[in-house]
Amino acid sequence: MAAEIHTLLQTLFLVSSSLCFCFIIRNSIPNGFFKFLLILPFFFLFLYIPLQFQTIHFQGPIGFFIGWLGSFKLLLFAFGKGPLCSPATSSSLLRFLAVGSLPIEIPDQSAANHSNPKLVLSFSYGAKLGFLILTIVAINFKNHFHPNASLIFYCLLIYFFLEFLIGSSAALAKAVLGVELLPYFNEPYLSDSLQDFWGRRWNLMTSRILRLTVYDPCRKLTIRVIGRKPATMLAVMATFVVSGLMHELIYFYIIRLAPTWEVTCFFLVHGVCLMTEMAVKLAVGGRFRLPQVVSTPLTVGFVMGTGCWLFFPQCLRAKMDVRMFEEHAAIGAFVKSLIVDLITPFGFISLQSK
């Protein structure tokens, strides 16, 4: 753990230095190819940084925050787009550093009102933290459940872990920066369609980043050649392909094995199904819609079912849960030894004084 903390400090220095350089040139260098060339070394650095970590608790979050989102934000910044170019972000170095290194985005205009009271929000995140703990405990006793149940636990773990991790990061950033942030999740378990799930409820920051980096350019390049509707479908599929490849990269950061392409297939399946859903909606013209009491279980069940089929088997083969609990034990031992090292000198001094 001491080596990981040392690597983390190096990462903070490298990421902060890179973003400080970008902040300095934000207005002095015109957006375009030349700025892209200046940013390119930092792009590859951000992709490389997660490979320096050895524990799953750092490999996953750093790979996601820096290796994926951070590197894509840099690409968008080179062309004057994305969250780093927002006036609310680029006006302050501290905000620029926070947005560049964390999965957060500052809106140009803060939301006027929030209908949910703070007590409800607090209870909601507290409940999700409780579910996260229960899910981790259930995975620890997975041998007592049916094999398929452990895959469901992984589905729940991914959601509750991301909610807690990103929610904590956003809360800290909000407290330090004193600004409102765009939401990251919007209760995805209430999705009534794949379009609703991927476009409006799940992983919203990643959806916004992929829209700017993949969907919009692909649609713009092809719309005059193949028409509006085919270009939209092609852009949707391209977005899911890139998302699949980036998830393969996250898996590689964690397990350090050649990809099996199951995760990419998961996103290809969802891309095809989402295009089919969009085509059906266009064909019926809104004349037919399943009741939400039916569509929501179907949508969530499809996402979890395909996840158990294609997304999580690599987790089980790589024994990621075993590594996770081993690291929990190592963290506990490290904290215990640190406390002992801090207390022992005071105990020695008190004995000497007697």
Walkthrough of the structure:
The protein is an all-alpha fold and 354 residues long. 77% of the residues lie in helices and 0% in strands. It is built from 14 helices and no strands. It is globular. The two termini are 36 Å apart. The relative contact order is 0.09. Residues 110-123 have low confidence and may be disordered.
The quaternary state of the protein chains shown equals: single chain
What composes the largest sheet? none
Q: Tell me the number of helical segments per DSSP (H or I, 4 or more residues long).
A: 14
Segments where pLDDT lies below 50 for 5+ residues?
A: 110-123
Helix and strand content put the structural class at mainly alpha
Helix content: over 70%
Secondary-structure map:
Elements: H1 2-25, H2 33-48, H3 56-78, H4 87-90, H5 93-101, H6 118-140, H7 147-177, H8 194-201, H9 204-226, H10 228-255, H11 262-284, H12 292-311, H13 313-317, H14 320-353
Helix pairs in contact: 1-3, 1-5, 2-3, 3-9, 3-10, 6-7, 7-12, 9-10, 10-11, 11-12
Membrane topology: Multi-pass membrane protein
Transmembrane segments: 32-50, 62-80, 119-139, 151-173, 231-254, 266-284, 290-312, 333-351
Keywords: Acyltransferase, Lipid metabolism, Membrane, Transferase, Transmembrane, Transmembrane helix
